[in-house]
Amino acid sequence: MARRAAYAVAPARRIMATFSSKSGAAGGGYDGAGGAAGGVEPPRLAREIDRANEFKQFNLWIENFNLHQRVIPMVPSLLGFAGLVPFVSSAGVILSAYVSEGKIPPAVSDFALTAHITYGAVILSFLGAVHWGVALRMPSLSSADLSRRFLYGVTPSLFGWAACLMPSSYGATNVLLAGFIVAYNVDQRQLLKMVPSWYLSLRRPLSLGACLSILFVSYTQSGISLPSFLSTSPREKAKDADQDKA
Description:
Pfam families: DUF3429 (PF11911). There is one protein chain. With 246 residues, the chain is mainly alpha-helical. It has helices spanning 2-37, 44-67, 74-82, 85-101, 106-137, 143-153, 155-165, 169-190, 197-221, 234-245. The chain has two domains: 2-67; 74-230, no CATH class. α4 (85-101) packs parallel to α9 (197-221), α5 runs antiparallel to α7 (155-165) and α5 (106-137) packs parallel to α8.
C-alpha cells in the first residue's frame, strides 16, 4: 500500500515542482524587468492570477488522474460487498427453510421477499443518485448531458417503486431484476469518463451478485419447486423413496 501511494503521489510532486519552477522563472523575469526599469516589483494581483491558473491546471490533472485510477479503494470495496449481505441473506433464508423443512413456509417466503424487494429498491435509488452527483460535480457538461444525467438519475428509483407496488411477487422480482440490468448497462456506457474507473470495475461483481440473488428469489416465487436433493427433511426423503419404489 505504501509503494502504491508513493506511485500515486510522485506525479503530483513532479507537477508541483514544475509549477514552482515556472513561478520562480516568471518571478525572476519580472524582477529582472523591474530591476531594469528601476526596481519596481510586479503587481501582486498579477502574481496571484498566475498562481491561481497554475493550481487550476494542477487540479485538472488530479481530476484526470483520479478518473483513470483502476485500483479500488478499500473502503468502497468493503462497503460495496457488505451491501450484498441483505441480498444474499434473504435468499439464504429461503434456501435454508427449504433444506430443513422440505418446503418454503409462506411466512418465511413473504418476509424474505419483502426484505429483498425493499432493499433492492433502495439500492436502485442509490445507483440513480450517482448520476445526479456527476451532474452536480461537473457543471461544465453541456446542457443536454446535464439534462440526461438528471432525467436518468430518477429512472432506477422508478423501477424500485414499481417493484414495490407489483401485486405479483414473481412480477416484482422481475421488475427489480430489470432495473438492475438497465442500471448496469447505462452506467457502463454513460459514466465511462465521468467517474473513476474503479467504480465501474466494482459494479461488475456487485451487480452480478445482486442479480443472481434476485433470480433465485424470482425462481422460488414462480411456483416451480426447488430440486428435492437440496432438502434434508425426512418427509421429502420418504417421498423420494416412495417414488423410487414405484
